[in-house]
């Protein structure tokens, strides 16, 4: 898909987790570095993003939570939140193709006035996700089974969506596993880029970040290996297939200079 130019926004400061996420996003989307470029927001500011130069934007997950106590947020997190709020205001106003994974639930949810809190957190590991009626009819989600396994782990979640947002999926402990705003702006609580190897990498990288007791890391990896997680990646593939032919410019003319 040579005419695709997607932008991945990363909030992972740890090189191992950030690079693994980037590789997984490309692999499951069917793109290489010429088709999916990356900005690590922990390393540099977002800068001006001309949406006309991109087919779509993907936001990865990470340790930030919009519901964190403001006093606990680092200057980098505060900057990232401000930059994302500005970008999402334009994305939502223009109904521009956007897929926010995990952290996207908080950022997109905050942008539309959803209630984001700690009422529906889920432990790190496998989760069984059920499509809603809207999800079964959605262009990206309709290819998924009505019920499927995914990997996740999060401290905050959407407790309530405002009117105009469409819930696409849920789980037993988390009422909003995915939603859509307009026709083209998506957010998932589960990780569509995570297979078992990717989850094990993150368990190791983030075992001292408060998601779980560090001494349980190996048992979490063992439990993850008992799950068969193959369906969520279809969301990434579908996003690229649906929007990858919309830009119409050569990739080289649509990509800003490398951030690194």
From TrEMBL:
Signal peptide location: none
Top-level division of the source organism's lineage: Bacteria
Protein's UniProt keywords contain Nucleus: no
GO molecular function, one term: transferase activity
One Pfam match: GATase
Stored InterPro entries: ChyE-like, Class_I_gatase-like, GATASE
Glutamine amidotransferase domain boundaries: 52-194
Keyword terms, alphabetized: Glutamine amidotransferase
Assigned GO CC terms: cytosol
Gene3D superfamilies linked: 3.40.50.880
Protein name, per record: Glutamine amidotransferase class-I
Organism in which the protein naturally occurs: Mycolicibacterium vanbaalenii (strain DSM 7251 / JCM 13017 / BCRC 16820 / KCTC 9966 / NRRL B-24157 / PYR-1) (Mycobacterium vanbaalenii)
């Amino acid at each position: 898909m040579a005419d695709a130019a997607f932008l991945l926004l990363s909030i992972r400061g740890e090189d191992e987790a950030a690079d693994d996420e980037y590789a997984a996003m490309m692999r499951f989307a069917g793109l290489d570095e010429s088709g999916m470029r990356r900005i690590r927001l922990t390393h540099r500011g977002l800068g001006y993003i001309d949406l006309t130069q991109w087919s779509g934007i993907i936001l990865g997950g990470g340790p930030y939570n919009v519901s964190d106590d403001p006093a606990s947020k680092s200057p980098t997190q505060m900057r990232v939140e401000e930059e994302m709020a500005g970008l999402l205001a334009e994305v939502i106003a223009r109904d521009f193709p956007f897929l926010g994974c995990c952290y996207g639930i908080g950022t997109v949810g905050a942008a539309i006035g959803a209630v984001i809190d700690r009422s529906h957190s889920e432990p790190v590991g496998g989760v069984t996700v059920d499509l809603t009626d809207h999800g079964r009819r959605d262009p990206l989600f309709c290819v998924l089974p009505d019920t499927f396994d995914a990997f996740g782990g999060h401290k905050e979640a959407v407790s309530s969506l405002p009117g105009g947002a469409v819930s696409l999926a849920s789980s037993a402990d988390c009422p909003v596993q995915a939603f859509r705003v307009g026709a083209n702006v998506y957010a998932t609580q589960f990780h569509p880029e995570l297979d078992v190897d990717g989850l094990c990498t993150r368990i190791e990288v983030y075992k001292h970040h408060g998601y779980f007791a560090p001494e349980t890391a190996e048992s979490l990896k063992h439990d993850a290996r008992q799950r068969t997680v193959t369906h969520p990646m279809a969301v990434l593939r579908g996003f690229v297939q649906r929007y990858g032919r919309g830009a119409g410019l050569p990739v080289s003319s649509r990509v800003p200079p490398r951030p690194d």
